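pinging the channel bc i need a second pair of eyes. not urgent but kinda urgent?? the chain im working w is below, pasted from the shared doc
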Amino acid sequence: MTANDRAFDLLEMIIESPEPRGLGELVSASGLTKPTVRRLLLGLEGQGFVRQDAQRRYVVGARVLDVAATALGNVDLVADSQGVLSDLRSRLSATVTLSVYADRQLHPAATLAPNAPYKVAGRGVAATGLHATAAGKSVLACLSDADVGWLLGTGELERYTAGTVTDPGELRAQLGEVLRRGYAVNDEESQPGVRCVAAPVRNYLSRPMAAVSVSVAASQGGGEWLTEQGSLVAAAADEIGSWFGGPELRQGTGESKAGARA
């Protein structure tokens, strides 16, 4: 292991620590000698990657933010996601869509149709309330209760089909389940004959920035199909989110390394 490797390991330790750490704590955690850790910290501090607080504990420096901003600026969400979306389409033989969340709505940014006889052409997330689509519910599940209330209001929600959830209380219960399992389903709730499963793409603040969804004709896949494919869709969304510093979802718990929904 080179000195650069040790320096980056030390920096990662400081970044991931929930509390600032002193020199002694970093020595114990790293397994390195005290002179080595001090030398590495001096180098990182000189470059602006770490700094000391009032208690002389080490915290992340502003240079890390500059590097992160440059990295995020070099990611083209739609273009760079094509490989992940294409792989998902091949594995599931379904219509795969990446929708960007902005201005209180989801806007389709890329759609890949399957190489199969059946191709789903739904109403689209932009023309449907967030509460009635899998992509919309996956985004809502990542927001605080206050944000969900602000987006949906307090009255009865718009109905699109017999399966649409229109009661805000029932929807909030569904969102808790979505958060727990990591993906949302739409069982003919926005359009008859169309089923969908979706998962959120989250950034470094764990905020939803997009959603990956997979749609099939109801005759192609039932409720069991949606459940079986949910983890694959969630994994694809998490992979895209990781490029933006998004948390890694721990399937089955609804929690991430960055914490659960507040």
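so Residues 250-262 have pLDDT under 50 and may be disordered. and The longest strand covers residues 208-217. — does that match what u expected or am i reading it wrong
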